[in-house]
């Protein structure tokens, strides 16, 4: 049995769609007894919604950059909560130091998203959200923001790293900034699945295109998308055109 762990945005979901080639390859891969995992920075409720829209299924769903894992029935089997104290510190830094450089700061809990906007004209990409104060009353999973200038994302993250050190991970998926507890990354979530599915496991393949994918691409048999930036390609020496092409390579 093989496992394939795929990033979503920019890897499986490209230019607003999942190609028919990738869709057919995933169905073929699973039909032969292998496991397909979606491994994303998005929250679990968000990725469930996206898969419903696409009429697609996965064997496991890893959300919030490894902070939550759900099985194929969408039952949560792993959860790492974000410290409320730390999340309030990070929120305060965005509000007091970065509000002119980002559109918003958002907090994801298991079932909702709380947002504070710094641009009154900004159109948020989620239909349902609440205010930031209410978010702090829930079990926090992750935080995220969006730079006003995509090219400034790295500089914002530098400021965050100087302020918070290794207390949190600030993932650069420009223009977005995904924030998780320091022990969580995409490899963390994938290792949860590996422990469960170790029997009859031959190999684990991974594919992605952004910096938050590096943990799983380096720890397992990783491929970057061919459109990934030069830094990603320098870290991972295998690249490929699509999820479907990687599946066909695995099944040869």
TrEMBL record:
Keywords tagged on the record: Hydrolase
Record Gene3D superfamilies: 3.30.1240.10, HAD superfamily/HAD-like (3.40.50.1000)
Keyword Flavoprotein: no
Example GO molecular function: phosphatase activity
Gene Ontology cellular component terms for the protein in this record: cytosol
InterPro entries: HAD-like_sf (IPR036412), HAD-SF_hydro_IIB (IPR006379), HAD_sf (IPR023214)
Highest taxon of source: Bacteria
Coiled-coil region(s): none
Keyword Hydrolase attributed: yes
PANTHER family with a match to the protein in the record: HAD SUPERFAMILY HYDROLASE-LIKE, TYPE 3 (PTHR10000:SF8), PHOSPHOSERINE PHOSPHATASE (PTHR10000)
Protein's UniProt name: Cof-like hydrolase
